Predict the 3D structure of the following.
Amino acid sequence: MRRMTARPENTHQARLLRLLRDNGSNSRAQLGDLVDLSRSKLAVEVDRLLETGLVVADGLAPSRGGRRSHNIRLAPTLRFLGVDIGATSIDVAVTNAELEVLGHLNHPMDVREGPVAVFEQVLSMAAKLRASGLAEGFDGAGIGVPGPVRFPEGVPVAPPIMPGWDGFPVREALSQELGCPVMVDNDVNLMAMGEQHAGVARSVGDFLCVKIGTGIGCGIVVGGEVYRGTTGSAGDIGHIQVEPEGRACACGNRGCLEAHFSGAALARDAEQAAREGRSAYLAARLETAERLTAESVSAAAAAGDPVALELIREGGKRLGQVIAGLVSFFNPGLVVIGGGVTGLGHTLLASVRTQVYRQSLPLATGNLPIVLGELGPAAGAIGAARLISDHVFSPA
Amino acid sequence: MRRMTARPENTHQARLLRLLRDNGSNSRAQLGDLVDLSRSKLAVEVDRLLETGLVVADGLAPSRGGRRSHNIRLAPTLRFLGVDIGATSIDVAVTNAELEVLGHLNHPMDVREGPVAVFEQVLSMAAKLRASGLAEGFDGAGIGVPGPVRFPEGVPVAPPIMPGWDGFPVREALSQELGCPVMVDNDVNLMAMGEQHAGVARSVGDFLCVKIGTGIGCGIVVGGEVYRGTTGSAGDIGHIQVEPEGRACACGNRGCLEAHFSGAALARDAEQAAREGRSAYLAARLETAERLTAESVSAAAAAGDPVALELIREGGKRLGQVIAGLVSFFNPGLVVIGGGVTGLGHTLLASVRTQVYRQSLPLATGNLPIVLGELGPAAGAIGAARLISDHVFSPA
DNA sequence: CCTTCTTTCTCCACACACAGGACAAAGTCT
DNA sequence: AGACTTTGTCCTGTGTGTGGAGAAAGAAGG
């Protein structure tokens, strides 16, 4: 079970590994140009990496007018596990060293069932993926949880929506079970890393990634690095006030963003509209289902239901209010919107954009794209794999 | 006039220079411990710095039980110029290499008179300081302007309160005139750097520095470095909405923070209260002066005028609303409040604190000090000196 | 006054990292 | 077959940095 993955011996090797991860296979010559090292020095480091087995040379590339080059690539047997624990479901993915998703499982589950039950589920999903032949073992695992994390220790702290997890040694426990290095982070941060690695945020240094799920959170990337704040709670925008005397929120205050717009708030509003007979479509859905969800609203909007559309527009306006403030403050180069309710899609986006462009300073919005995430439900798991690969591909 | 200041040849020398700047004089042995270099290597670098004249060895330190050490310190003739251009006044300071203020001048002037007039004033103030024997020439100058700056080029961009400065090559022009390296930044960022170097924010990695002057801005420090955003407008929080259908703002929107609370808004409110006869104190002040200012309100509050106190409390509440949102989002380790109206002092602070502690998440506010800046009007100039010293003390 | 112990600073030999050129290998193109 | 290209290896020179052996300068104690 335990698998001793080699680690790079120095920063050069670490850089090479990350380069191979992000750009795929390469010849020695190309690598030399990219890292700005002499061919001789580079050859030495590559040879050492070959010895440790972290990279392999498989076959020759077609000639480009001279001697054919060897393909240097990361060991094809390397496997990372990406785990994204949401409020109501768990995503687990297996990736290769290039962070391509080889297999992906999703399982509905409430985080509030506590760390023990959730862990059991995660491990069984990991085992299933392994049993299907996708991996013999894992060289690292990243895991995201829906709440603030003390990052260096990998421990959730005072998570509002997941009581019972407070102080649970997630990193320690998972590392023990899987026999490999583990890193823990907030799910929103991982989504940001996912979009940065393989999604819309490639090549953007400073950006925000707003995730709308049961609650609302925001990943902050500064200079290519996730910013986590002093106590790990940065990006917790769900309880920013949008209406001085607005709706009562579970947190005890009034007018919080989450009270006015989030997956949960949207479902509540939809149910109310259905009961009050304002929307025939939603009322019909409520007949068949026990409860309405954000997805119900998506479906209704897609079917052209005016009440659903209005709910989304109104929500987008609220969200836009907050994002407008953040854009003025943070002046990002990109705003990504993602999470479970991306089904709300362009209606939501249009509403947010209108609000932001109207309310933020021209200098900050001048060249500011506001877009939907392009990785969908896999974003978190990919980000998790990215997180642990950054760790594994750094000097021991 | 032109003064060729030597520059460090490598990062070791740069680190040594900054260490000497921040910690004052030191022996070679102490330096060796601090930089984690062998004594031999260190001796070489120090000798080279001595040759270039950037540092000097003056005298022997008292023995600590063995051979007495040489005092290594930055050249006592080094001089930095710190310039802080506010909306309505100019501050100019001369510092030594340790960034201690040797002389300081202040002159009221409206930025809107344009770059040419302001420059003339700045140069004459610098000349006056030099004439008084504080400096023979300058080894670098930092300058802050009240608006967004394209930092790498040192050029203001689309500054709302200082039209006429847009695109003016501040860095280029000042460097030409003074014959030394120049760096330009937003005044708020400089205040943050000042408080970080010599004020309340020493040893805090991530913090916010809110400056209340004619407008309102916020310096953002991430991992000890000022964050400027994609287009240099980060921290521009004056136009975040605090009241959906609030007061009309000069920017064209409604309910902006600056419309409800800032030096200018405060003065306006005070005048109105005076005219409506709600405050005898303020009315009396309006008799003698042409117009009321934020300082008038400070004085009234100090004298116990209830209307002034209420204005400040109300303003603090507005400011607190915005800061509460920023604290949730950014999760800083400290919030500093400064600027011209620090005279409002603890009344304002109390009001802000109440609002923030009530409205932000406990995890973010748990151990969050909210304090007044301790450098007063010199903060900007010190920050400016710090900015340019960081530049001069880095490899060419 | 002399000895011993400390601290500071200097000098020197050695290890290591890295660059850059020469050269061999393996191609393509004419 | 010969000229030219690209890739990869080998070797040597150079500059960076470490660590140890002292020398210098002083304190404390007998």
Residues 37-41, 44, 60, 63-68 of chain A lie near DNA strand C (CB under 10 Å from a C1'). Residues 11-74 of chain A form a domain with the Arc Repressor Mutant, subunit A fold (CATH 1.10.10.10). The first helix of chain A runs from residue 11 to 23. Chain A has three domains: 11-74, 80-196+379-392, 202-373.
